[in-house]
Amino acid sequence: MQSKQLYHLCTFLLLFLVNGAVYAQQVRLSGTLTDAETRTPLVGASVVIRDQLSGTVTDATGQFSLLTNRRGPWTLVVSMVGYEKQQIPVASADQPIPVSLKASTQVLQDVVVAASRVEENILQAPVSIEKMDIRAIRETPSATFYEGINNLKGVDMVTSGLTYKQINTRGFASTGNSRFLQLIDGIDNQPAGFGFSVGNMFGLSDLDVESVELVPGAASALYGPAAFNGALLMHSKDPFQYQGLSAQAKVGVNHLNDPNTGAALYHDYALRYAKVFNNKLAFKLNASYLHGLDWFATDYTDVDATTPNELKGRSNPAYNGLNVYGDEVNRTITGIGKVARTGYEERSLTDYNVYSLKLNGALHYRITPNLEAIYSYNCAKGIANYTGSNRFSVNGFSLIQHRVELRGANFFVRWYTNQEDSHDSYNTRSLGQQINRTWVRDLNGNVVPANQADEMWFTRYTTAYQGKAPGVTASNHAAARGFADQGRYLPGSPEFEREKTRLEGIQGLAGAGILSQTKMHHTDAQYNFSSALEKAGLSKTELLAGGNFRQYSLFTNGTLFDDRGGRILYYEYGAFLQASQRLFADKLKLTVSGRYDKNQNFAGYFTPRASAVFSPTPAHSFRASFQTGFRNPTPSDQFIKLNVGPITILGGAPSNSAGMNVYENSINSPTVGGFVNGFLADVQTGKTPQQAVMANKDKLQKSNVAYIRPEKVQSFEVGYRGLLNNRVAVDANYYFGEYQNFILNQVVIRPDSPVLGSDGQINPAAAQDILNSKYQVFQLYTNASDRVTAQGATLGLTYFVPGGYTIGGNGTWSAFDLKGANPNNIPAFNTPRYKTNVTVGNRNLGRNLGFNVAWHWQDSFDWVGSFNDLRPGRIQAYHLLDAQVTYRLPALKTALKVGASNLTNRYVVQAYGSPAVGGLYYVSLTFDQNMR
């Protein structure tokens, strides 16, 4: 089906190519662009004809030339980073057009798209928005532009590994954040099986990124269900505007003073080439490769839930180390107590040699001056270590994307597909447990089958502790463990490495391997009616409409979903409408938006948004908005069907449990204990089993678990952005949000008999099933009915100091209120109460010399995640200092950059169970054929 869609779309584009092959008589517009103050030529500025795609960039002498088949007069839109955007009326093409641009206060002249899906001055944005332009990207002191996003207001960045960092805003953070949308040139780059973007592992290289825009908070009214907590929009460089060759070589070192390993080299190389032919055809090619030694997860804190704090530690028989795997398997042995198996440290199980390889290209063809066709291809592959419910080695994971787009000045139609392949990834915790089942011996010294290994290990331990093993001291835990561990494969030994390799390749419960070969096909379109309204005399009115259709195709071969019989297919679609009106001499702008979304498995949802922006002067702007958002359950939330022995994990889509009679006929598991205890007590007092069942059966409670639904949020926000005394830029905002329908798990027990009898009371046969073990336990995905609130505020100040210095600072306050909700029903907020950033820089400190320093601090807080079974782990307060110095060599079109991420080399943990991250020190050389 998808191949036919692609065939028809390509045929459609081909017809446009044929029909547009003959242009009307063309006119050439040319001129020179200079700095208004210095009169020097401006290189690389963008020059386009308003309401058309036709455009060009100025060359090394500041000159530009472009063709158009539109009759005059014309309006040229001229822009360049660091200068005020200008619209130049042109009545005739007979004479060269002189244009001069004035230097601007960057923070007030930025043009953004993400806030309203149309270009607008950042002052007019109806909601909070942050932006990194091409200069900020080039000058970030962080090792990559993606890490530099952490210095924006309100951002939470969590590092799981060197090649995987996760971004979040406004609370409820996680290492796999399905509440936050990430788009690259309008493409959602999440692997469909994951349900979230894997940081920048499949994203842009530093050479090809033009700008980054961040919208914190609910953005579902414009971007759909994935933008529950916010959206990050990254824009790559257009080959029509950024031509030529550019290359970057970055070499660095990390793991300095790391007790786990010696210093390691870090390599990051990138290449970009773009070419334009006759201002009609353009292409670009990108290649980047990053390689380094990942950070080690070596927190060996004893996290056993039942051991008193004073007894925890390596000598605890039930020791369960945070980054030790295999010791989760335990037993409570009569007369001995709780005992856990001996585990393996993570560094023996995972591959810390990580890399990221990205290859992509794009072909752009201007069918007419106002119509452009685009095809792009992206192939990315790499290794990352990810902290989720376990620590996962995302090994050799690949993502392939195709995109076909037709774009005009007022519209676009786009189709793309994401195809992931994760056949070499594995679960390190499962790997440790499975290796532990390959070497256990019985009391005669013979290795037992894997399915008997755990019980035999505990039998050996019990035998030794009770003094029944020859030569082993009785009542000695260390001696008993040594006897039980006889034959244990030691990390690094040939036997250990053999079993490690074998088990990594076995997918499903018998091994540690993970298979996910999922696809996502997406079509979306948008049309801006504003130009048509302007021609009709409604120049102060804007109208925007759009929609999308997405199909998921899931396949795990039964390792995660019930899909051995074929792929799981489901779809969702949505449409939005946005209208804006300017009033009172353009000082007030009112905007209303509404979006309807429908997933095949859920009821449709309508998400409205309304905003007002009041700008009493060009330098001051006040905003207020009401926003709504929702999040569809991820593929795993809906379709996981995994039998892990004593319990079956079951996703909450109705079709996933069809015919299983679980949601309809089950018992709340917490009520089982009271029934069983009451039954046993009555039997001991002389009642017959039948009498005891009848006396206690009503202690059981039929479950009332609903099928899973989307999460929802309503949010209010007010803010101000302005310039004081032409020196100090201010951006402040406050938000308040109310959340409901949080997705959670609930354990139920399904007896073989109906739970309720004909009288509507608990069926005695169902109660008897509980006693006779004629039941099955399920962990169901559902929603909490509880409501909670979150609020926060941010303040950003930027001071433009004489001499070219820029001093910036921002602070964020976040608060969470349970409002009496059951904490077990609410995902963890996982956000520090306070955090702040301070930056100091000067791009012209001396001749061709610049620098930038960024300091980040955040408060301590408790991190709660599934990796530690939802038990809190403390994240200590920490601060990071990034710095860089850049020296430009214009004659060589090259920039030399020396910098450091985490200059002071403080090893900090950003999510409980994830590694401690230290300093990364680097030197880079960047060549740009069109250095500006």
Automatic annotation (TrEMBL):
Primary subcellular site in the record, as a coarse category: membrane
Entry membrane topology: Multi-pass membrane protein
Domain TonB-dependent receptor plug: 124-231
InterPro entries per the UniProt record, alphabetical: Beta-barrel_TonB, Beta-barrel_TonB_sf, CarboxyPept-like_regulatory, Plug_dom, Plug_dom_sf, TonB-dep_rcpt-like
Keyword Kinase: no
Compartmental location: Cell outer membrane
Signal peptide segment: 1-24
Keywords attached to this entry: Cell outer membrane, Membrane, Receptor, Signal, TonB box, Transmembrane, Transmembrane beta strand, Transport
Occurrences of domain TonB-dependent receptor-like beta-barrel (ranges): 423-903
Family: Belongs to the TonB-dependent receptor family.
Entry protein name: TonB-dependent receptor domain-containing protein
Organism expressing this protein natively: Larkinella insperata
